[in-house]
Amino acid sequence: MRVDVVTLFPEMVETLLQFGVTGRAVSRGLLAVMTWNPRNSTNGRYRAVDDRPYGGGPGMVMKVQPLRDTLKMVRCSVEPSGRTIYLSPQGKLLDQDGVRDLAKEARLVLLAGRYEGIDERLIEAEVDEEWSIGDYVLSGGELAALVLIDTLARLLPGALNDSKSSEQDSFMDSLLDFPHYTRPVDVDGRRVPDVLLGGNHAAIACWRQREALGRTWLRRPELLATRSLNAAEQILLDDFIREYQAREADSGD
Ligand code: 9D3
To answer: Is residue 225 pLDDT above 80, yes or no?
Structure first.
């Protein structure tokens, strides 16, 4: 997959992508990321990429011309360059379904904004889709672009060392993860659950699924509302709830 990122802070994007899964995806030739700085496409005397908002108010707005010229260069260097995505607080909320859809593309152009945002006419003319990564305030689109690239990289065939990890991600989709343990067996009197030490793989799989369902029920019940449970899952969850409520009655009033 080829991703072109238009950003005033190319080092932010380049540096973080050198590590971990994304770093390996790049070195394995599965992912190629190129950055483009609109500052290099400025003509004016002050190389300005931003200007004051019409109508007044605080902050600055990214100008059309440097971004339009940068996007022209991107589209000349990669043909076809793929969908152009603007990371913005006004975008559609990114989730794993959205990531899976974007991962079908061979090429993407990501636009990371700074200041109060981008002149609306550039968005109307050049942007295909607007995506947000969540309802909180970032200082710019770079971290959002990195989040998107990271999630995409995990879906590229061969990017994860253990091919089962990606499968498990999708298997466990819309459920929270089960708890994980490693050595030692005892940490200040807290022991690893016995079932994980027994080597009964069917029992372990059951326990993990039960924990995943139970924690989702406790912490993110809205995820269960959008996912139907099969008969086996319903029994495991009922079992978890029964045990949880027994524990609660035991410790509480
Ligand atoms: C005062 C109104 N704010 C809009 C909600 C101003 C504003 C906040 C943050 C303008 C730009 C930004 C920069 N944010 C992003 O570029 C961004 C973002 C985010 O802030 N949250 C979640 N997803 C994203 S994607 C890009």
So the answer is: yes
The residue from 68, 89, 107, 150 that is catalytic is 89
Q: Which CATH architecture has domain 2-154?
A: 3-Layer(aba) Sandwich (3.40)
The pTM score is: 0.96
Please check whether the domain covering 170-252 is classified as CATH 1.10.1270.20: yes
Asked if the domains at 2-154 and 170-252 fall in one CATH topology, the answer is no
Of the pLDDT bands very low, low, confident and very high (cuts 50, 70, 90), residue 171 is: low
Residues 190-222 pLDDT 10s = 999 999 999 999 999 999 999 999 999 999 999
Q: What is the pLDDT of residue 162?
A: 85
Residues lining ligand 1, judged by CB closer than 6 Å? 87-89, 113, 116-117, 132-134, 136-138, 140-141, 144
Structure tokens at 230: 């099969």
CA of residue 137 to ligand 1 center, whole Å: 5
| Phi-psi label, residue 82: left if phi above 0, alpha if psi -120 to 50, beta otherwise | left
Mean pLDDT, residues 26-39 taken together? 98
Catalytic choice (95, 116, 238, 248): 116
Domain-wise residue ranges, the chain: 2-154, 170-252
Q: Can you give the three-state secondary structure of 62-128, one letter per residue? A: ECHHHHHHHHHHHHHHCCCCCEEEEEEEEEEECCHHHHHHHCCCCEEEEEECCCCCECHHHHHHHCC
Q: How far is the CA of 48 from the centre of ligand 1 (A)?
A: 21
Calculate how far, in angstroms, residue 114's C-alpha sits from the geometric centre of ligand 1.
Answer: 8
Read off the tokens for 171: 């298997």
The atom of ligand 1 lying closest to the CA of 113 is 16
Q: Higher confidence at residue 210 or residue 164? A: 210
